Amino acid sequence: MSDELEVARRAAAAMERADTAGRGVGVRLLDVGPGRARVALTVEERHVNGHGICHGGYLFFLADAAFAYACNSHGTSAVAAGADITFLRPVALGAELVAEAVERARAGRSGLYDVTIRDGDRAVAEFRGRSRQVPGLPSPA
């Protein structure tokens, strides 16, 4: 195993232990590596809005979780500087969602990440996150 992969896994394990919000929502970490991460969520009754579909806030939450694991995978604490999401399709109760984050660029303390949320092979949302490394925060690794 490479040193970079080991750093990514240690950072993810530390974040996962401390992520009370993610556990409460039902987010599951599937995979992590340098500059990338995959997380999952099963859409339950608690995630459904008044239209009977998954609330967009939960889709944002899932994408943000993948983004967080990916931007912290280098072992230096990073937080969101901003993010945007585009909802492509409604998501039904019972859907098994997977969000995959991929690093697009890192320069200095800033990073750019794209996240695709899929229900099976169908993309249901696209998210772009901008990260900023923050000195002074506890290191995730």
Automatic annotation (TrEMBL):
Keywords attached to this entry: Hydrolase
CDD domains, alphabetized: PaaI_thioesterase (cd03443)
Pfam families, per database record: 4HBT
Family annotation (InterPro entries): Acyl-CoA_thioesterase_PaaI, HotDog_dom_sf, PaaD, PAAI_dom, Thioestr_dom
UniProt xrefs under Gene3D superfamilies: Hotdog Thioesterase
Stretches assigned to coiled coil: none
Domain Thioesterase: 51-124
PANTHER family for the chain: ACYL-COENZYME A THIOESTERASE PAAI
Protein name: Thioesterase domain-containing protein
Protein's organism: Pseudonocardia adelaidensis
